[in-house]
């Protein structure tokens, strides 16, 4: 039975031993980078989730501010009508 990686020949030749070491290092780095990629993906997903929640809160705040401003505008118009102040024409 023939081995996929001929270890005896590799260990006998110093250059081949360096090649084997390089292969092992490449495999280790690839495995480690996969774990890093998973962690980075998790961090990005968490960040996007938090940003989405924050944008939702900002949107709700802006909508409530708009509603409050519309209420104030209506009240000011009612007060102007009660004391008899004439409104300016918007067409001018």
Provide a descriptive summary of the structure in words.
The protein is rod-shaped, with a radius of gyration of 36 Å. With 92 residues, it is an all-alpha fold. Helix content is 83%, strand content 0%. The chain contains 2 helices and no strands. The relative contact order is 0.04. The model has no long low-confidence stretch (mean pLDDT 80).
Question: What does this entry show, briefly?
Answer:
The protein is an all-alpha fold.
Keywords, separated by commas or semicolons:
92 residues, mainly alpha, 0% strand
Please state the average pLDDT score: 80
Q: Provide the succession of SSEs.
A: HH
Outline type: rod-shaped
Radius of gyration: 36 Å
Major sheet attributes = none
Number of strands: 0
**β-strand amount:** under 5%
- Whole-Å distance between the termini? 97 Å
What's the topology here?
Blueprint lengths: L6 H6 L1 H70 L9
């Amino acid at each position: 039975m023939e081995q996929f990686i001929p270890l005896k020949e590799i260990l006998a030749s110093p250059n081949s031993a360096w090649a084997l070491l390089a292969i092992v290092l490449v495999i280790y780095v690839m495995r480690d980078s996969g774990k890093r990629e998973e962690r980075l993906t998790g961090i990005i997903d968490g960040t996007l989730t938090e940003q989405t929640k924050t944008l939702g809160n900002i949107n709700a705040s802006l909508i409530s501010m708009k509603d409050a401003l519309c209420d104030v505008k209506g009240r000011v118009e009612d007060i102007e009508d009660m004391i008899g102040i004439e409104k300016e024409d918007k067409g001018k």
